[in-house]
Amino acid sequence: MIRILISIIVVAAIATLPLLGDNYLLRLGTMFAMYCVLALSWNVIGGYAGYPSFSTAAFFGLGAYTGAILQGAGVPMFAAWIAACLSAGLFAVLLGMAILHLKGHYFAIASLVVAEVLVEIATSWTSLTGGGMGINLPVLRISVAAQAQLFFYAMLAAAVLAFIMNWLVGAGRIGFALQCIRQNEDASSMVGINTTRYKVIAFTLSSLFVGGAGAIYASWVFYIEPPDVFSILLSVKPIVMVMLGGAGTIFGPVIGAFVFIVMEELVWRNFLSFHAAVLGVLIVALIFFLPNGILGVIRRRRAARSTEEGAAS
């Protein structure tokens, strides 16, 4: 009950950002919500199941192009966003059945290649995707401020849905099965868990809202091109965020997304000329000193405190 109350308070506080009238904070809020979607979605397959997926960029880019192509064809924006979710989910089902029999670094490499393949398709299929020139999306006939608020609330809604999905998975049968797979997949199969089915379900759930976030992003920036929406950073960043906050937890991805975006903005502002190197060093240092994430540190301190109190009594 306390966790639910905390979640509602945090969402309500974030939802008040447009009232501050600061465009910079509103942009940060939109990016934070997008990062939450990516991290929470990856947590299902990478945190609960323990499969090192690098397919986030593929799902994001596929959703972005699906939304952009449909909007260019005259489909209403919200319908295009829903279609983007479904297209990413269908693609994840097919891809999962093809590569989820692989494990460890073999699966990681296979999932990493997918985005590169989609980049080549998007670049070559000029008649549909615009090729290397990208796609311009229809401009909304509303004020700039109204547009900023619209896409902020749309991305926030996607983040809330991804959080609820993450919560339900972690508290339900799917989460239990995925945690068994993470501990010992062969033993899980022996005790009757259909590991293939649960892995495909997790892989699909990790794609749905990422595809929607990609479509919302495309509408937000009004222009996309293959290197942007299929960037490898879109696959790496969610992994870093989840590891920072705590893999396989409900709040860990959100905490990690917040820490990451603050760190990213500080590095961009103070080390513009070599921000990538500085950010990389900070990330490695944080992961080295926080192997179980921020929530892992909090749990260890609570356990140590309880042990000391028990010894004192």
How would you summarize this macromolecular structure in one to three sentences?
The protein is mostly helical and 313 residues long. Helices cover 79% and strands 1% of the residues. The protein is globular.
Distinctive features:
313 residues; mainly alpha; ABC transporter involved in vitamin B12 uptake, BtuC
Summarize the SSE layout with pairings.
Layout: H1 2-15, H2 23-48, H3 56-72, H4 77-99, H5 104-124, H6 126-129, E1 135-136, H7 144-171, H8 173-183, H9 185-190, H10 195-221, E2 223-224, H11 226-229, H12 233-245, H13 252-270, H14 275-289, H15 293-312
What would you note in describing this structure?
This protein is mainly alpha-helical and 313 residues long. It has a single domain (2-312), classed as ABC transporter involved in vitamin B12 uptake, BtuC. 79% of the residues lie in helices and 1% in strands. The chain contains 15 helices and two strands. The chain has helices at 2-15, 23-48, 56-72, 77-99, 104-124, 126-129, 144-171, 173-183, 185-190, 195-221, 226-229, 233-245, 252-270, 275-289, 293-312, and strands spanning 135-136, 223-224. Strands 1-2 form a two-stranded antiparallel sheet. The chain is globular, with a radius of gyration of 20 Å. The two termini are 29 Å apart. The mean pLDDT is 88.
**CATH C-level name:** Mainly Alpha
CATH architecture: Orthogonal Bundle
Radius of gyration: 20 Å
Per DSSP, the total helix count is 15
Sheet-strand content, in percent, reads under 5%
State the shape.
globular
Order of helices and strands: HHHHHHEHHHHEHHHHH
Mean pLDDT: 88
CATH topology: ABC transporter involved in vitamin B12 uptake, BtuC
Low-confidence stretches: none
> How many E-type strands?
2
End-to-end Cα distance, whole Å, is 29 Å
Major β-sheet, in short?
2 strands, antiparallel
Helix-and-strand structural type: mainly alpha
User: Can you list the strand order of the major beta sheet?
Assistant: 1-2
Provide the helix percentage.
over 70%
